[in-house]
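Entry 14. Structure prediction run on the chain below.
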Amino acid sequence: MRYRVILCSVALLATGCGGGSSSSGPSTTLSGTYSGTETFTIPLARTFSFQVVVIQNGNNISGSYSNGSGDRGTFSGTLSGNDFSGTASSAIAPITCNVVGSVTDGGAAFHGTVACSNGSGGTFTLTRT
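Output returned:
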């Protein structure tokens, strides 16, 4: 079960940023540090602290994440307007996760869902720190 939590955390973080316009480039700089929570609903309901460092290059985002369950890893994704999608990979377990979500408050916060290759999944909410 620890691997499920780790991978889901990775997926959540991998797509944890977004914003801007896809036709003219992002209107908000998302690079920075974000923190919040992630809640896994599959297979068991559990909530963990979640930290993400985002690097933005045009409509592309990447970075690293860690969570309260001990998971850490990297992510990459694409922004389209206020929406994002991407993948996350745990440095702890051989799991990848698909992440989708939306940016709010001009890039100060984002939220989304994650679905992992091991069948686990959940939601996340992050704010800029």
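The chain has one domain: 2-128.
Filed with the rest of this week's runs.
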